[in-house]
Write a structure and sequence with these properties.
162 residues; alpha/beta; 4-stranded parallel beta sheet; two-stranded antiparallel sheet; 5 helices
Length: 162
C-alpha cells in the first residue's frame, strides 16, 4: 500500500449488521453448501442469524434483479449473491456468467450498497466441489468475509470529510 495519506482496512465484526443472502437454486448441490458456509462464517463473526434475510431464486441470472431491489430498499448494509454456473457444451455458460457478473456489479454501483459476488463460474463439477471446502477453499465463507469487510469500509468512506 502507498505510504502517506489516509489508509484503512475494513473490520470483521458482523455484530449489528443488516445483511441479506440471495441464493440460486440451480446447482443446489453446490449452492447449498456455499450458502451454509456463508451463514456459518457470518455467525462466527458475530451476526445474529435471526436478523439475516435469505431469499432463493431459480438461477444465477435472477440474482442481480433481487439483489438490486434489496439494496435499493436501504434496509441492508450488504447483499451477498450465491450461485454456481458450471460450463456445459453450449455458449449458455458465457451468457449466464457474464450477465450475472455484470448485473451484480451494476446493482452495487447503482445503489451504493455492497453487493457481493459469491458466484462460482467453473469449467466442471470438480472445480465447483473444490470451492465448497475442498482444495480451493470455501467461496461461501469468503463471500461472507468480503461482505463484512465492505460494510465497514463503506461506513468509513461515507464518513470521510468532504
Amino acid at each position: 500500500m502507498a505510504k502517506g495519506g489516509l489508509s484503512f482496512e475494513g473490520g470483521l465484526d458482523a455484530a449489528g449488521m443488516r445483511l441479506a443472502i440471495v441464493v440460486a437454486r440451480f446447482n443446489a448441490h453446490v449452492t447449498g453448501p456455499l450458502f451454509d458456509g456463508c451463514r456459518e462464517e457470518l455467525e462466527g463473526h458475530g451476526l445474529d442469524l435471526d436478523t439475516l434475510t435469505s431469499i432463493e431464486v431459480p438461477g444465477c441470472f435472477e440474482l442481480p434483479l433481487v439483489a438490486k431491489q434489496l439494496a435499493a430498499s436501504r434496509r441492508f448494509d450488504a447483499i451477498i449473491c450465491i450461485g454456481a454456473v458450471i460450463r456445459g457444451d453450449t455458449p449458455h455458460f458465457d451468457y449466464v456468467s457474464s450477465g450475472t457478473a455484470s448485473g451484480i456489479q451494476r446493482a452495487a454501483l447503482d445503489t451504493g450498497v455492497p453487493v457481493i459476488f459469491g458466484v462460482l463460474t467453473t469449467d466442471n463439477e470438480e472445480q465447483a466441489i473444490d470451492r465448497i471446502g475442498g482444495s480451493a477453499g470455501h467461496k461461501g465463507r469468503e463471500a461472507a468475509l468480503t461482505a463484512i469487510e465492505m460494510v465497514h469500509t463503506m461506513k468509513t468512506v461515507r464518513a470521510l470529510p468532504r
